[in-house]
Amino acid sequence: MNSFDIDGVIYIRKGLMGVRPGPNDIIITGRSFEEKPETEAMLLDAGIYNKVFYNPLTFDEKSRESSGRHKAKVISQLLEDGYELQIHFEDDPIQIEQIRKYCPSVAIVHLDHDLTYKENVRHV
After folding, report:
1. Running DSSP on this structure, what letter comes out for residue 14?
2. Is residue 108 a contact partner of residue 87, using CB atoms and an 8 Å limit?
């Protein structure tokens, strides 16, 4: 099983999809739980039906650092629960730093590009 970020990994920008998760993979997003309706609509339109773990912070509370910590927490819990997580796909170096800090054993594929805005933006 692998895990995928959404923005900058699965979804690059309107009309441009990136790396698709396999059927048994999971999505761990920095998007707030408040963004669930528009996120699920976007994923369904793309034919992506994977389990999604949303950031428990509100849109206004979240940051790139807190999103990275959220992802690390989910990854840690999955590992504790016995899941064999192979690779996490991520584009944000700040979030990668947080994941590596708390989950040093997890391999991370860094999709390094400037096609996606990394700061907190609404997805409508």
Report:
1. T
2. yes
Q: CB neighbours of 25 closer than 8 A, spacing ≥ 6?
A: 1, 2, 3, 4, 50
Per the CB < 8 A criterion, the answer to whether 86 and 1 are in contact is yes
Structure confidence at residue 6 as a pLDDT band (50, 70, 90): very high
**Separation in Å, CA 102 to CA 4, 27, 35, 117:** 17, 18, 25, 25
Residue 123 has pLDDT above 60, yes or no: no
Q: Give me the sign of the Cα torsion angle 48, 50, 51, 57.
A: negative
For 91-105, b/e burial (b = at least 16 CB within 10 A) is bbeebbebbeeebee
Kindly indicate the confidence band of residue 118, based on its pLDDT and cuts at 50, 70 and 90: low
